[in-house]
């Protein structure tokens, strides 16, 4: 756990802290009250954890709560018109086109290849010196890139540098990025952070898309191919060529952040041997002495509950920031036009009014019986509503594939007694990685 201030931070302390770890600005009051109104730099900020109000912000009136412009510009530099960087009709058009290209039916043919790639990584881990710790975050990060590349490009090695570039989009927000400012200044500040390698990688991405648009293309019908040929279900139109590139970049960038639970699950299992034992027993029963098969992933209910609980404690998207386009009312409080509204899964998932003993790791929270009385929007690991993570289904398939492969073959033990501190930027990761020792099962 990062330090949790007993009282709210001053504006200066908040801006200084958020630049190093955004989670460390979350003080105790935010975990006790479902709606907290504050002002920073004379600007109103509302922290919303009430499930009914979350529904109003992210679903019922989501058009009134677009993303904060200064944060959106961090995506816009590299993603342009992609769904992670756009608003309004451009976003709606891209969303209609992109959604079918990454839904469960579209990615189902890739699952055997995903499992095979995970097995190759497991072989490499097994061949390493067991006395030398490995950084499991680096290993699963590299594996995630390979898996995502399989879906995006059909496994073309030329896609790897592109995925690595887009996995870093956007750059971690700085304090100044969170302060309201004129558009010309915001653009200048973002311009200074542009990657000098962007033109070459961008050209490579364009070339890969153009190859899939050519009449004689005989390669796999991967995500890039599907985007290049997908039509808007309302108009029947294809995306323009440049916008295919933008949406491809947006989907690639979003996929990198959504699988952070692949690191945190091994941390939590190492700390809770009784859960780990039950997890391993389920894998052994479902896959006795053999590698996973695609259908096995649907027969792992306890593993799925473990993963849900991991994402409760360490949500892939720790903070969702919005800005009121027009005045409104939430939880009986007036929300003026321009106010910032923060829905933070990091807070919502650990809120004392929504969860019993919220900092405790307990997969049994997600049994059907225990879930029955819980408010629907108290658990939002991939956000919710029209802007729910477009790749959430793929992320779950990818994570279950990796967990089944690695969990069947290994136990991971923490290599250090030192604290593991969650680092909150756009996604959630352990500061300094996660060194573990590998035990073969």
UniProtKB/TrEMBL annotation:
It holds the Pfam family p450. Residues 1-24 form the signal peptide. It comes from the Bacteria. The keyword Membrane applies. The chain crosses the membrane at residues 384-406. The keyword Transmembrane helix applies. Coiled coil: none annotated. Keywords: Membrane, Signal, Transmembrane, Transmembrane helix. This is Cytochrome P450 132. It comes from Methylobacterium trifolii.
């Amino acid at each position: 756990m990062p330090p949790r201030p007993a009282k709210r931070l001053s504006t200066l302390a908040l801006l200084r802290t958020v630049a190093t770890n955004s989670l460390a600005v979350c003080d105790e009051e935010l975990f006790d009250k479902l709606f907290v109104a504050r002002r920073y730099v004379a600007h109103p900020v509302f922290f919303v954890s009430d499930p009914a109000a979350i529904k109003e912000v992210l679903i019922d009136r989501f058009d009134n709560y677009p993303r904060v412009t200064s944060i959106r510009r961090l995506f816009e530099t590299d993603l342009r018109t992609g769904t992670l960087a756009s608003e309004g009709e451009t976003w709606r058009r891209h969303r209609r086109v992109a959604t079918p290209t990454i839904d469960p039916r579209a990615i189902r043919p890739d699952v055997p290849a995903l499992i095979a790639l995970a097995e190759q990584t497991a072989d490499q881990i097994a061949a390493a010196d067991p006395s030398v710790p490995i950084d499991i975050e680096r290993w699963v990060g590299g594996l995630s890139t390979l898996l995502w590349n399989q879906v995006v490009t059909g496994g073309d090695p030329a896609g790897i540098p592109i995925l690595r570039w887009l996995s870093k989009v956007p750059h971690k927000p700085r304090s100044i990025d969170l302060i309201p400012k004129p558009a010309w200044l915001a653009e200048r500040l973002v311009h200074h952070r542009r990657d000098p390698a962007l033109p070459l990688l961008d050209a490579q991405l364009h070339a890969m898309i153009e190859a899939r648009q050519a009449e004689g293309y005989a390669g796999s019908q991967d995500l890039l191919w599907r985007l290049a040929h997908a039509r808007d279900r309302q108009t029947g139109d294809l995306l323009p060529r440049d916008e295919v590139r933008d949406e491809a970049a947006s989907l690639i960038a979003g996929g990198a952040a959504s699988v952070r639970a692949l690191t945190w699950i091994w941390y939590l299992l190492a700390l809770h041997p009784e859960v780990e034992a039950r997890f391993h027993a389920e894998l052994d029963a479902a896959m006795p002495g053999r590698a996973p098969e695609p259908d096995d992933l649907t027969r792992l209910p306890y593993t799925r509950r473990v993963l849900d609980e991991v994402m409760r404690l360490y949500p892939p998207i720790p903070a969702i920031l919005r800005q009121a386009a027009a005045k409104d009312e939430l939880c009986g409080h007036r929300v003026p036009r321009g106010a910032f509204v923060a829905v933070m899964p990091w807070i919502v998932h650990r809120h004392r009014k929504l969860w019993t003993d919220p900092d405790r790791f307990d997969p049994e929270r997600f049994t059907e019986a225990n879930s029955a009385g819980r408010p629907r929007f108290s658990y939002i690991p991939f956000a919710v509503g029209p802007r729910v993570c477009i790749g959430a289904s793929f992320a779950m398939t990818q994570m279950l594939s990796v967990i089944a492969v690695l969990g069947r073959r290994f136990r991971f033990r923490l290599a250090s007694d030192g604290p593991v501190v969650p680092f909150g930027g756009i996604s959630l990761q352990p500061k300094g990685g996660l060194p573990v020792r590998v035990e073969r099962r």
